[in-house]
Design a protein that fits this description.
The chain has 415 residues and is an alpha/beta fold. The chain is built from eight helices and 28 strands. Helix 1 packs parallel to helix 6 and helix 4 crosses helix 5.
């Protein structure tokens, strides 16, 4: 397991933007070192450990992009052309002989096109009768042929190390004959909720208690990242129990994540437990919702303490914890795509703090962002109803209906 230095998350106590926080972390994290080879069908969402070099050209030969007739362009006549059909070429059945000059070949999509024939005319534009084909007057020369190597060249880097593999990547690897890929081992993450008030769903709900939503939400986010998750359950507000649980988990995991217990209150014991066996820094992110967040190291494992309010925990995860975990996984850091959308509501805010609003998009063009529900950081129903987050910059004083704002779709940060 990769061991981290205690000061890899060290910072001062001034409020930080998310970008500044990630910039301070960048370069301090060492990715997990374990590499394993897995079958292509098991590589989805894994982090590629080595560049993939293509041993072949793709496609391996010139082939027809449409059903039609393959001809030599110098046989074409301005007013239309009629040629004898000398042969028929189907996909997977290369032609043994040559096509005589002044002749055409009937070809089908994917069929190898002989080198002497440089143009394919779509069958819809042709008329064949009695072994001859009539071509239209206007034919685009060298059209409708997929050229050898136009997709991938032999010897080219087809997939780059550090890439999180998607379905298209697996298809690309298969297209060059790949059957297995070298990937980083899955990140091992231990996850716990803290607090005497937190109750496991299914257990009786005591007076003054709430059901544990955070752990199940974050577990789903971790699963989407391809992490191997150990569920530590709920840890009560007992300093010794918290320290024992966290230290035991740190010994066999790359990261330990908790929710709740990282503020400065008398019952917030997580900070002390981590500090006793490593280092912890309270990060005052200038984000709403999403603070407080604690980052640190316990016995060489990364520690991420998320806020106790469920929506704040999700925002802190997608903006800060997610890029940290991706870096530990060896993934190349890629900022999630954002899209300009029109605000369909007014929203006032104080300058100096960035805000993320839960929104859904209407079906219009251009799309309009509508509030998915109330803004409170404990209101999960608005999160579940949302398609993504509207990102309001720190220096803004709010939005007026019709303003343009950056939209961060959940499918960018919850996968």
């Amino acid at each position: 397991m990769t061991r981290l230095p205690n000061d890899c998350f060290a910072t001062d106590t001034s409020p930080l933007s998310v970008e500044a926080a990630l910039e301070r972390i960048r370069g301090r994290l060492t990715p997990v070192t374990g590499i394993e080879t897995v079958a292509l069908d098991d590589a989805l969402d894994r982090v590629l450990a080595e560049d993939v070099i293509s041993p072949i050209d793709v496609p391996p030969h010139d082939n027809a992009a449409v059903d039609g007739y393959a001809v030599r362009s110098d046989d074409l006549k301005p007013g239309g052309t009629e040629l004898p059909v000398a042969d028929r070429i189907a996909a997977g059945h290369p032609l043994d002989g040559a096509i005589p000059k002044g002749s055409a070949a009937r070809v089908f999509t994917g069929a190898p096109v002989p080198a002497a024939l440089d143009t394919v005319v779509m069958q819809e534009d042709c008329h064949e009768a009695d072994g001859r084909v009539r071509l239209p007057a206007q034919v685009r020369v060298r059209a409708n042929i997929r050229r050898r190597g136009e997709d991938v060249r032999r010897g080219a880097v087809t997939l780059t190390a550090g890439r999180r593999l998607g379905p298209g990547d697996l298809g690309l690897a298969a297209s060059i004959g790949g059957t297995a890929l070298a990937v980083r081992r899955r990140l091992r993450v231990a996850l716990a909720s803290t607090g005497d008030e937190v109750t496991e769903p299914g257990d009786p709900l005591r007076s003054g208690a709430v059901f544990d939503a955070n752990r199940h939400t974050v577990k789903g986010l971790l699963a989407r990242l391809g992490c191997s998750v150990t569920d530590l359950g709920i840890v009560r507000d007992d300093p010794a129990a918290i320290a024992r649980t966290l230290r035991s988990a740190a010994g066999s995991h790359d990261a330990v994540i908790t929710s709740g217990g990282v503020s400065a209150g008398e019952e917030d014991h997580v900070r002390a437990a981590v500090a006793a066996h490593g280092r912890i820094d309270a990060w005052r992110l200038s984000v709403k919702p999403g603070r407080p967040v604690a980052l640190g190291v316990i016995d060489g494992s990364a520690f991420i303490g998320l806020p106790g309010n469920p929506v704040a925990a999700v925002v802190a995860f997608v903006t800060l914890a997610r890029p940290i975990l991706l870096a530990l996984s060896g993934a190349v850091a890629i900022a999630p795509a954002r899209y300009p959308v029109t605000a369909g509501f007014d929203h006032a805010k104080k300058p100096g703090r960035r805000e993320f609003l839960r929104v859904r998009l209407d079906s219009g063009m251009p799309p309009v962002a509508l509030k998915a529900g109330p803004d409170g950081s404990s209101i999960l129903s608005a999160l579940a109803a949302a398609d993504g987050l509207l990102d309001i910059p720190a220096d803004s004083t709010g939005l007026a209906k019709g303003d343009t704002a950056d939209y961060l779709p959940f499918n960018e940060v919850m996968r």
